[in-house]
Amino acid sequence: MADIPITLPTTWNLKGILSLVLQILGLTWNTIRVKLVKRVGEKIVKVAETGVTIVKKLVSEGPMALWEMIKEKAAEIKQQVMDGIRNWLITQVVNRLSLNY
Prior knowledge:
By secondary structure, the chain is mostly helical. It has one domain. The protein contains five helices and no strands.
């Protein structure tokens, strides 16, 4: 474990603590990249690093970028569900009102 370079978080919030835990577990981009290169080859990993948005974020911001992306997608899904419910309710109310007149 002494070989693992660890950077302490600047703020001790959920993101900072999770970042520290991922570093301790060895789940940094460098360790993940080494394993990917062994499995699929340097060329494919290089292409993914330059072309795939998720991998770009992982490289530039580390594993916490995935957490942020998940939070963003969850917020988008929540908004879509709420919009769907709202539209359904409006349709039902308008239909009920139009049947009464």
